[in-house]
Amino acid sequence: MKAAFITGTGPADVIRYGDLPDPQPGPHEALIRVRACAVNPIDTYVRSGAVAMALPLPYVVGCDLAGDVVAVGADVERFRPGDRVWGSNQGLLGRQGTFAELAAVDERWLYATPAEVSDREAAAVALVAITAHLGLVDRAALKEGETILVSGASGGVGMAVVQIAKALGARVIATAGSQERREFVRKLGADVVLDPQRADLVEAVREAASGGVDVHWETRRDPRFDQTIEMLADGGRMVLMAGRDARPPFPVGPFYVKGCSLYGFVMFKADSQRQAAAAADINRWMARGALWIPAGHVLPLSQTAYAHQLQEAGGILPSSPPLVGKILVEP
User: Fold this and answer.
1) Quick one: average pLDDT of 259-263?
2) Which end of the chain has less neighbouring CB within 10 Å, N or C?
């Protein structure tokens, strides 16, 4: 099979495109003909060595996939050849990745693709939507009628958070860094969209959410805790999913006086049962058109190294403005 793989960590140009032996499914694995996969920041961290993990070498890069089952192991119960599936959480914790023509995946990490959803759509949603669901449902316990502020709402996770929060019945205030991105976030369903650079951001948020927001989802790498805690309501919750190297000041007094809570998490540490529960909701929302992530770039498997360069550059093509959406690769 053709695959995008590395034999050691390093910059994007260590990714090779070439032939590897076809994987053979184990007893609990399905062999997937990969039709689409998405690039995520964690892919670049693992490839570069910034997030150190034991890697099976040669190591196929990538977490997400969508495709169809071509064979199953003896103990697989949920899938049969011909089934369309999507999944994530591959290429991590010793598992091989997905950027290849074929991938052997434990059925615990696979979910049936709704008939109404294309492989591109399923791959684009995979990691970011599971991340958003885990943070909103498992961590912040967002409730119908509450108000959430989503910082960086035009990024992949941010877009998923906006749509899932609306599906859960919340009111959404969002920030995005350009007029084009703000218009896009409005189309996703955000009730109020603000420029994060405006000098009166705290006042604008508190005006839009009388008494402050119940939840703040932070996607930026540099959390601004003083600003956030001013915007939170009493008992407010903040979710962190970025800023691995950040060491910002933290206003302890205002935080505990308000009775706030702070949640940090990484998606790939969630067990398969929690991720499957998230996938069940995601499938329902995708099928009715309430959750989708656009494809900003679609590249062939042979250009995986370039796809990683694009991810690290924020999706910017030479002489072109940055696009909104995921970077997808199709074998």
Assistant:
1) 96
2) N
